[in-house]
Write a structure and sequence with these properties.
Length: 71
């Protein structure tokens, strides 16, 4: 998976999500980003992981599910 930081517009296009939604998630601290020259930059795999955890309803649900599969 690509580990470069990408723009908000590129992230939105790659994930098929609205830019405003992603911007709001970042401002609320729910997904991580870097502020570079006044612009948000995102690491796609980290954002996908954060959104996946949100969709499961608990911040640690993804880690729990992976641990259960490893048993």
């Amino acid at each position: 998976m690509d580990r470069r930081f990408i723009t908000l517009s590129r992230l939105a296009a790659r994930l098929g999500l609205p830019r405003q939604f992603l911007r709001e998630q970042a401002r609320r601290g729910l997904i991580t980003y870097l502020l570079v020259g006044g612009r948000m930059r995102f690491e796609e795999p980290a954002v996908c992981d954060a959104l996946r955890r949100q969709s499961l309803g608990r911040p640690d649900a993804g880690a729990v599910a992976e641990a259960e599969r490893a048993r």
